[in-house]
Amino acid sequence: MRIAMIGTGYVGLVSGACFADFGHQVTCVDKDGDKIASLHRGEIPIFEPGLDALVAANVKSKRLDFTTDLSGPVADADAVFIAVGTPSRRGDGHADLSYVYAAAREIAKALSGFTVVVTKSTVPVGTGDEVERLIREANPKADVVIASNPEFLREGAAIRDFKFPDRIVVGTSDERARKVLGDIYRPLSLNQAPLMFTERRTAELIKYAANAFLATKITFINEIADLSEKVGADVQEVARGIGLDNRIGSKFLHAGPGFGGSCFPKDTRALVKIAQDYDVQLRIVEAVLTVNDHRKRAMARKVANAAGGTLRGKTVAVLGLTFKPDTDDMREAPSIPLVTGLLDMGAKVRAHDPVGMEQARKELPDIDYFDDPYACLKGADAMVVATEWVQYRTLDLARLKQEMAHPVVVDLRNIYRPEDMAAHGFTYESVGRPHLPRT
To answer: Whole-prediction pTM value?
Structure first.
Protein backbone atom coordinates (compact mmCIF):
# COMPACT_ATOMS: atom_id res chain seq x y z
CA MET A 1 0.00 0.00 0.00
CA ARG A 2 1.11 3.58 -0.64
CA ILE A 3 0.76 5.85 2.39
CA ALA A 4 1.20 9.60 2.82
CA MET A 5 1.82 10.64 6.44
CA ILE A 6 1.12 14.34 6.99
CA GLY A 7 3.23 15.51 9.92
CA THR A 8 6.60 14.27 11.17
CA GLY A 9 6.07 14.87 14.86
CA TYR A 10 5.98 12.09 17.40
CA VAL A 11 2.92 10.28 16.05
CA GLY A 12 3.63 10.86 12.37
CA LEU A 13 7.27 9.81 12.41
CA VAL A 14 6.77 6.71 14.56
CA SER A 15 3.69 5.63 12.59
CA GLY A 16 5.32 6.29 9.23
CA ALA A 17 8.46 4.35 10.12
CA CYS A 18 6.46 1.40 11.47
CA PHE A 19 4.16 1.29 8.43
CA ALA A 20 7.26 1.27 6.21
CA ASP A 21 8.67 -1.55 8.31
CA PHE A 22 5.48 -3.49 7.56
CA GLY A 23 6.44 -3.28 3.89
CA HIS A 24 4.29 -0.33 2.81
CA GLN A 25 5.60 2.58 0.74
CA VAL A 26 5.47 5.62 3.03
CA THR A 27 6.19 9.28 2.40
CA CYS A 28 6.22 11.56 5.43
CA VAL A 29 5.33 15.19 4.67
CA ASP A 30 6.10 18.25 6.75
CA LYS A 31 6.10 22.00 6.03
CA ASP A 32 9.22 22.47 8.14
CA GLY A 33 12.02 22.33 5.59
CA ASP A 34 14.73 22.21 8.24
CA LYS A 35 13.13 19.17 9.85
CA ILE A 36 12.85 17.36 6.50
CA ALA A 37 16.48 18.20 5.70
CA SER A 38 17.52 16.80 9.09
CA LEU A 39 15.57 13.60 8.47
CA HIS A 40 17.27 13.20 5.10
CA ARG A 41 20.59 13.43 6.96
CA GLY A 42 19.43 10.70 9.34
CA GLU A 43 18.91 13.07 12.26
CA ILE A 44 15.81 12.23 14.32
CA PRO A 45 14.12 15.31 15.86
CA ILE A 46 12.71 13.42 18.86
CA PHE A 47 14.17 10.91 21.30
CA GLU A 48 12.44 7.54 21.10
CA PRO A 49 14.37 4.32 21.74
CA GLY A 50 14.98 2.41 18.50
CA LEU A 51 13.45 5.02 16.20
CA ASP A 52 16.72 6.16 14.62
CA ALA A 53 17.61 2.60 13.57
CA LEU A 54 14.08 1.90 12.31
CA VAL A 55 14.04 5.06 10.18
CA ALA A 56 17.52 4.39 8.80
CA ALA A 57 16.69 0.79 7.84
CA ASN A 58 13.54 1.74 5.97
CA VAL A 59 15.11 4.74 4.24
CA LYS A 60 17.89 2.42 3.08
CA SER A 61 15.28 -0.05 1.79
CA LYS A 62 13.59 2.82 -0.07
CA ARG A 63 10.25 2.23 1.67
CA LEU A 64 10.41 5.51 3.63
CA ASP A 65 10.97 9.00 2.31
CA PHE A 66 10.50 12.59 3.47
CA THR A 67 9.37 15.70 1.62
CA THR A 68 7.86 19.15 2.04
CA ASP A 69 5.72 18.68 -1.08
CA LEU A 70 2.33 17.23 -0.20
CA SER A 71 0.79 17.03 -3.68
CA GLY A 72 2.73 14.11 -5.16
CA PRO A 73 2.54 11.71 -2.20
CA VAL A 74 -1.18 12.42 -1.68
CA ALA A 75 -2.02 11.92 -5.37
CA ASP A 76 -0.29 8.52 -5.31
CA ALA A 77 -1.58 7.36 -1.92
CA ASP A 78 -4.12 4.69 -1.07
CA ALA A 79 -4.38 6.26 2.39
CA VAL A 80 -3.42 9.68 3.73
CA PHE A 81 -2.91 9.94 7.48
CA ILE A 82 -3.26 13.32 9.18
CA ALA A 83 -0.83 13.28 12.11
CA VAL A 84 -0.34 16.96 12.87
CA GLY A 85 -0.39 18.58 16.30
CA THR A 86 -3.59 19.36 18.22
CA PRO A 87 -2.30 21.38 21.19
CA SER A 88 -4.55 22.98 23.77
CA ARG A 89 -5.90 26.19 22.33
CA ARG A 90 -4.60 29.18 24.21
CA GLY A 91 -7.20 30.60 26.55
CA ASP A 92 -9.99 28.01 26.62
CA GLY A 93 -8.52 24.49 26.71
CA HIS A 94 -10.18 23.32 23.50
CA ALA A 95 -8.01 21.34 21.08
CA ASP A 96 -6.50 23.62 18.44
CA LEU A 97 -7.58 22.05 15.14
CA SER A 98 -6.13 24.67 12.84
CA TYR A 99 -3.32 22.36 11.68
CA VAL A 100 -5.76 19.52 11.01
CA TYR A 101 -8.08 21.71 8.96
CA ALA A 102 -5.21 23.30 7.04
CA ALA A 103 -3.93 19.83 6.16
CA ALA A 104 -7.42 18.75 5.05
CA ARG A 105 -7.75 21.71 2.67
CA GLU A 106 -4.34 21.04 1.15
CA ILE A 107 -4.99 17.30 0.85
CA ALA A 108 -8.26 17.96 -0.97
CA LYS A 109 -6.52 19.74 -3.82
CA ALA A 110 -4.11 16.84 -4.42
CA LEU A 111 -6.47 13.84 -4.24
CA SER A 112 -6.51 11.51 -7.23
CA GLY A 113 -8.53 8.30 -7.42
CA PHE A 114 -10.09 6.56 -4.43
CA THR A 115 -8.33 7.59 -1.22
CA VAL A 116 -8.95 7.06 2.47
CA VAL A 117 -8.07 10.15 4.52
CA VAL A 118 -7.46 9.12 8.11
CA THR A 119 -7.28 11.37 11.17
CA LYS A 120 -4.59 9.88 13.41
CA SER A 121 -4.15 13.04 15.46
CA THR A 122 -6.14 13.15 18.68
CA VAL A 123 -9.21 15.18 17.73
CA PRO A 124 -12.54 16.06 19.36
CA VAL A 125 -15.70 14.20 18.47
CA GLY A 126 -17.07 15.49 15.17
CA THR A 127 -13.71 16.55 13.73
CA GLY A 128 -13.98 13.91 11.04
CA ASP A 129 -17.28 15.45 9.94
CA GLU A 130 -15.62 18.82 9.51
CA VAL A 131 -12.62 17.33 7.70
CA GLU A 132 -15.05 15.65 5.30
CA ARG A 133 -16.95 18.90 4.75
CA LEU A 134 -13.75 20.83 4.05
CA ILE A 135 -12.43 18.25 1.60
CA ARG A 136 -15.71 17.96 -0.29
CA GLU A 137 -16.07 21.73 -0.38
CA ALA A 138 -12.57 22.12 -1.83
CA ASN A 139 -12.85 19.14 -4.20
CA PRO A 140 -16.48 18.08 -4.80
CA LYS A 141 -15.47 15.36 -7.26
CA ALA A 142 -13.01 13.63 -4.95
CA ASP A 143 -13.56 9.90 -4.42
CA VAL A 144 -12.67 9.96 -0.76
CA VAL A 145 -13.67 8.46 2.59
CA ILE A 146 -12.75 10.08 5.90
CA ALA A 147 -11.90 7.66 8.71
CA SER A 148 -10.59 7.90 12.27
CA ASN A 149 -7.68 5.80 13.52
CA PRO A 150 -6.53 7.17 16.91
CA GLU A 151 -3.06 6.30 18.19
CA PHE A 152 -2.37 4.71 21.57
CA LEU A 153 1.41 5.02 21.72
CA ARG A 154 3.36 5.45 24.94
CA GLU A 155 6.41 7.65 24.65
CA GLY A 156 9.48 5.54 25.35
CA ALA A 157 7.74 2.36 24.15
CA ALA A 158 6.08 3.61 20.98
CA ILE A 159 7.58 1.17 18.47
CA ARG A 160 6.61 -1.86 20.53
CA ASP A 161 3.15 -0.39 21.12
CA PHE A 162 2.69 0.09 17.38
CA LYS A 163 3.84 -3.41 16.48
CA PHE A 164 2.21 -5.22 19.41
CA PRO A 165 -0.90 -3.12 20.10
CA ASP A 166 -3.62 -3.86 22.63
CA ARG A 167 -6.13 -2.79 19.99
CA ILE A 168 -6.41 -0.93 16.71
CA VAL A 169 -9.48 1.29 16.54
CA VAL A 170 -10.80 2.27 13.10
CA GLY A 171 -13.78 4.58 12.79
CA THR A 172 -15.55 4.12 9.46
CA SER A 173 -18.71 2.49 8.15
CA ASP A 174 -17.48 2.44 4.53
CA GLU A 175 -16.59 -1.03 3.24
CA ARG A 176 -13.91 0.21 0.86
CA ALA A 177 -12.19 2.12 3.66
CA ARG A 178 -12.43 -0.91 5.95
CA LYS A 179 -10.63 -2.98 3.33
CA VAL A 180 -7.86 -0.41 2.80
CA LEU A 181 -7.19 -0.01 6.51
CA GLY A 182 -7.50 -3.75 7.07
CA ASP A 183 -4.83 -4.31 4.41
CA ILE A 184 -2.58 -1.65 5.94
CA TYR A 185 -2.72 -3.35 9.34
CA ARG A 186 -2.74 -6.91 7.96
CA PRO A 187 0.93 -7.55 8.91
CA LEU A 188 -0.15 -7.37 12.55
CA SER A 189 -2.54 -10.30 12.16
CA LEU A 190 0.23 -12.70 13.17
CA ASN A 191 0.30 -10.91 16.52
CA GLN A 192 -3.48 -11.31 16.75
CA ALA A 193 -3.96 -7.60 17.29
CA PRO A 194 -7.68 -6.88 17.79
CA LEU A 195 -8.85 -4.67 14.93
CA MET A 196 -11.97 -2.88 16.13
CA PHE A 197 -14.20 -1.22 13.54
CA THR A 198 -16.72 1.30 14.80
CA GLU A 199 -18.39 4.55 13.80
CA ARG A 200 -16.13 7.54 13.24
CA ARG A 201 -17.42 9.62 16.15
CA THR A 202 -17.14 6.63 18.49
CA ALA A 203 -13.50 6.12 17.50
CA GLU A 204 -12.77 9.78 18.19
CA LEU A 205 -14.30 9.53 21.66
CA ILE A 206 -12.51 6.26 22.49
CA LYS A 207 -9.14 8.02 22.44
CA TYR A 208 -10.22 10.79 24.82
CA ALA A 209 -12.04 8.38 27.12
CA ALA A 210 -8.98 6.10 27.35
CA ASN A 211 -6.61 8.93 28.28
CA ALA A 212 -9.04 10.43 30.78
CA PHE A 213 -9.49 7.06 32.49
CA LEU A 214 -5.74 6.50 32.79
CA ALA A 215 -5.28 10.04 34.12
CA THR A 216 -7.99 9.25 36.67
CA LYS A 217 -6.13 6.14 37.86
CA ILE A 218 -2.94 8.18 38.34
CA THR A 219 -4.75 10.90 40.24
CA PHE A 220 -6.62 8.38 42.38
CA ILE A 221 -3.45 6.64 43.57
CA ASN A 222 -1.79 10.02 44.21
CA GLU A 223 -4.60 10.95 46.59
CA ILE A 224 -4.33 7.54 48.26
CA ALA A 225 -0.60 8.27 48.63
CA ASP A 226 -1.40 11.44 50.56
CA LEU A 227 -3.69 9.48 52.86
CA SER A 228 -1.06 6.74 53.23
CA GLU A 229 1.48 9.27 54.51
CA LYS A 230 -0.97 10.53 57.13
CA VAL A 231 -2.01 7.10 58.43
CA GLY A 232 1.38 5.39 58.17
CA ALA A 233 0.54 3.04 55.31
CA ASP A 234 2.66 2.18 52.26
CA VAL A 235 1.04 3.29 49.01
CA GLN A 236 3.14 0.90 46.94
CA GLU A 237 1.72 -2.05 48.84
CA VAL A 238 -1.75 -0.53 48.61
CA ALA A 239 -1.33 -0.24 44.84
CA ARG A 240 -0.16 -3.82 44.57
CA GLY A 241 -3.03 -4.99 46.76
CA ILE A 242 -5.68 -3.36 44.60
CA GLY A 243 -3.84 -3.91 41.31
CA LEU A 244 -3.92 -7.69 41.76
CA ASP A 245 -7.68 -7.42 41.33
CA ASN A 246 -8.02 -8.03 37.58
CA ARG A 247 -10.98 -5.66 37.46
CA ILE A 248 -8.58 -2.86 38.41
CA GLY A 249 -5.16 -3.91 37.08
CA SER A 250 -1.72 -2.79 38.21
CA LYS A 251 -0.85 -0.26 35.50
CA PHE A 252 -0.98 3.50 36.15
CA LEU A 253 -1.08 2.98 39.91
CA HIS A 254 2.33 4.49 40.64
CA ALA A 255 2.19 7.43 43.01
CA GLY A 256 4.23 10.48 42.06
CA PRO A 257 4.19 14.23 41.42
CA GLY A 258 1.27 14.19 38.98
CA PHE A 259 0.82 13.36 35.30
CA GLY A 260 2.20 15.40 32.42
CA GLY A 261 3.25 14.89 28.83
CA SER A 262 1.74 15.61 25.45
CA CYS A 263 -1.50 13.66 25.89
CA PHE A 264 -3.10 13.36 29.32
CA PRO A 265 -3.25 17.05 30.31
CA LYS A 266 -4.45 18.42 26.97
CA ASP A 267 -6.78 15.50 26.22
CA THR A 268 -8.51 15.59 29.60
CA ARG A 269 -8.98 19.36 29.23
CA ALA A 270 -10.32 18.93 25.71
CA LEU A 271 -12.73 16.19 26.82
CA VAL A 272 -14.16 18.51 29.48
CA LYS A 273 -14.63 21.22 26.84
CA ILE A 274 -16.28 18.79 24.42
CA ALA A 275 -18.71 17.74 27.14
CA GLN A 276 -19.51 21.36 28.02
CA ASP A 277 -20.28 22.07 24.35
CA TYR A 278 -22.94 19.34 24.58
CA ASP A 279 -24.21 20.56 27.97
CA VAL A 280 -22.69 17.60 29.85
CA GLN A 281 -20.61 18.02 32.99
CA LEU A 282 -17.82 15.48 33.50
CA ARG A 283 -17.34 16.04 37.21
CA ILE A 284 -14.84 13.22 37.71
CA VAL A 285 -12.60 14.37 34.86
CA GLU A 286 -12.83 17.99 36.04
CA ALA A 287 -11.74 16.88 39.51
CA VAL A 288 -8.82 14.92 38.02
CA LEU A 289 -7.52 18.07 36.34
CA THR A 290 -7.90 20.18 39.47
CA VAL A 291 -6.22 17.63 41.75
CA ASN A 292 -3.35 17.10 39.31
CA ASP A 293 -2.66 20.83 38.99
CA HIS A 294 -2.68 21.28 42.77
CA ARG A 295 -0.40 18.27 43.25
CA LYS A 296 2.28 19.58 40.91
CA ARG A 297 2.42 22.87 42.79
CA ALA A 298 2.51 21.08 46.16
CA MET A 299 5.73 19.20 45.37
CA ALA A 300 7.92 22.26 45.97
CA ARG A 301 6.40 22.61 49.43
CA LYS A 302 7.22 18.95 50.08
CA VAL A 303 10.87 19.69 49.29
CA ALA A 304 10.87 22.76 51.54
CA ASN A 305 9.45 20.77 54.46
CA ALA A 306 12.10 18.08 54.05
CA ALA A 307 14.82 20.73 53.99
CA GLY A 308 13.78 22.22 57.32
CA GLY A 309 10.88 24.45 56.30
CA THR A 310 12.69 27.00 54.15
CA LEU A 311 14.65 26.98 50.89
CA ARG A 312 15.87 30.58 50.98
CA GLY A 313 19.54 30.57 49.96
CA LYS A 314 19.69 26.77 49.65
CA THR A 315 20.82 24.75 46.62
CA VAL A 316 18.46 22.05 45.33
CA ALA A 317 19.59 19.46 42.79
CA VAL A 318 16.78 18.07 40.61
CA LEU A 319 17.41 14.73 38.92
CA GLY A 320 15.17 14.16 35.91
CA LEU A 321 13.26 16.82 34.00
CA THR A 322 11.25 15.08 31.28
CA PHE A 323 7.70 14.05 32.12
CA LYS A 324 8.72 10.36 32.02
CA PRO A 325 11.87 8.32 31.27
CA ASP A 326 13.01 7.34 27.75
CA THR A 327 11.82 10.56 26.14
CA ASP A 328 13.05 14.13 25.78
CA ASP A 329 9.47 15.45 26.01
CA MET A 330 9.07 18.37 28.42
CA ARG A 331 5.43 19.14 27.62
CA GLU A 332 3.60 19.76 30.91
CA ALA A 333 6.32 17.90 32.81
CA PRO A 334 5.83 17.98 36.60
CA SER A 335 9.41 19.26 36.86
CA ILE A 336 8.33 22.64 35.46
CA PRO A 337 6.00 23.71 38.30
CA LEU A 338 8.34 21.96 40.75
CA VAL A 339 11.38 23.99 39.69
CA THR A 340 9.34 27.18 39.37
CA GLY A 341 8.09 26.66 42.92
CA LEU A 342 11.60 26.03 44.23
CA LEU A 343 12.83 29.24 42.61
CA ASP A 344 9.90 31.18 44.03
CA MET A 345 10.88 29.94 47.50
CA GLY A 346 14.37 31.37 47.06
CA ALA A 347 16.27 28.20 46.17
CA LYS A 348 19.12 28.00 43.71
CA VAL A 349 18.26 25.11 41.39
CA ARG A 350 20.59 22.89 39.41
CA ALA A 351 19.46 19.95 37.29
CA HIS A 352 20.46 16.86 35.34
CA ASP A 353 18.54 14.77 32.80
CA PRO A 354 20.00 12.05 30.55
CA VAL A 355 18.42 13.34 27.30
CA GLY A 356 16.03 16.18 28.09
CA MET A 357 18.23 19.14 28.99
CA GLU A 358 18.15 20.75 25.56
CA GLN A 359 14.36 20.86 25.65
CA ALA A 360 14.34 21.77 29.34
CA ARG A 361 16.43 24.90 28.77
CA LYS A 362 13.57 26.32 26.68
CA GLU A 363 11.14 25.86 29.59
CA LEU A 364 13.49 26.49 32.52
CA PRO A 365 16.21 28.95 31.47
CA ASP A 366 17.00 30.24 34.97
CA ILE A 367 18.66 27.16 36.44
CA ASP A 368 22.08 25.53 36.10
CA TYR A 369 22.47 22.33 34.07
CA PHE A 370 25.04 19.58 34.61
CA ASP A 371 26.04 16.70 32.34
CA ASP A 372 26.86 14.43 35.28
CA PRO A 373 24.49 13.69 38.18
CA TYR A 374 27.27 13.64 40.78
CA ALA A 375 28.49 17.07 39.63
CA CYS A 376 24.91 18.29 39.85
CA LEU A 377 24.66 17.04 43.45
CA LYS A 378 28.01 18.36 44.67
CA GLY A 379 27.39 20.84 47.50
CA ALA A 380 23.57 20.58 47.24
CA ASP A 381 21.41 21.03 50.33
CA ALA A 382 18.72 18.73 48.95
CA MET A 383 18.26 16.30 46.07
CA VAL A 384 14.92 15.73 44.32
CA VAL A 385 14.14 12.79 42.04
CA ALA A 386 11.56 14.13 39.59
CA THR A 387 11.82 11.53 36.80
CA GLU A 388 12.50 7.82 37.34
CA TRP A 389 15.34 7.36 34.86
CA VAL A 390 16.98 3.98 35.42
CA GLN A 391 20.39 5.69 35.76
CA TYR A 392 19.29 7.24 39.05
CA ARG A 393 18.36 3.91 40.60
CA THR A 394 21.99 2.80 40.62
CA LEU A 395 23.66 5.93 41.98
CA ASP A 396 26.27 5.27 44.67
CA LEU A 397 24.46 6.31 47.86
CA ALA A 398 27.66 6.57 49.90
CA ARG A 399 29.13 8.91 47.28
CA LEU A 400 25.89 10.92 47.17
CA LYS A 401 26.10 11.60 50.88
CA GLN A 402 29.74 12.56 50.58
CA GLU A 403 29.10 14.98 47.69
CA MET A 404 26.05 16.71 49.18
CA ALA A 405 26.27 19.54 51.72
CA HIS A 406 23.26 18.09 53.54
CA PRO A 407 21.96 14.52 53.04
CA VAL A 408 18.34 15.40 52.24
CA VAL A 409 16.63 13.37 49.48
CA VAL A 410 13.07 13.90 48.29
CA ASP A 411 12.16 10.95 46.08
CA LEU A 412 9.01 11.89 44.14
CA ARG A 413 9.13 8.61 42.19
CA ASN A 414 9.82 6.13 45.03
CA ILE A 415 12.87 4.64 43.28
CA TYR A 416 14.82 4.03 46.52
CA ARG A 417 14.08 1.81 49.51
CA PRO A 418 13.50 3.82 52.69
CA GLU A 419 15.55 1.36 54.75
CA ASP A 420 18.56 1.78 52.43
CA MET A 421 18.37 5.57 52.66
CA ALA A 422 18.05 5.43 56.44
CA ALA A 423 21.03 3.08 56.66
CA HIS A 424 23.15 5.60 54.75
CA GLY A 425 22.08 8.42 57.04
CA PHE A 426 19.84 10.35 54.65
CA THR A 427 16.86 12.45 55.61
CA TYR A 428 14.54 10.76 53.14
CA GLU A 429 11.07 11.73 51.96
CA SER A 430 9.14 9.69 49.40
CA VAL A 431 5.52 9.63 48.23
CA GLY A 432 2.91 7.76 50.24
CA ARG A 433 5.30 5.67 52.34
CA PRO A 434 6.05 5.67 56.07
CA HIS A 435 8.95 7.77 57.34
CA LEU A 436 11.93 5.88 58.71
CA PRO A 437 14.38 7.43 61.17
CA ARG A 438 18.03 7.69 60.13
CA THR A 439 20.30 5.05 61.63
So the answer is: 0.92
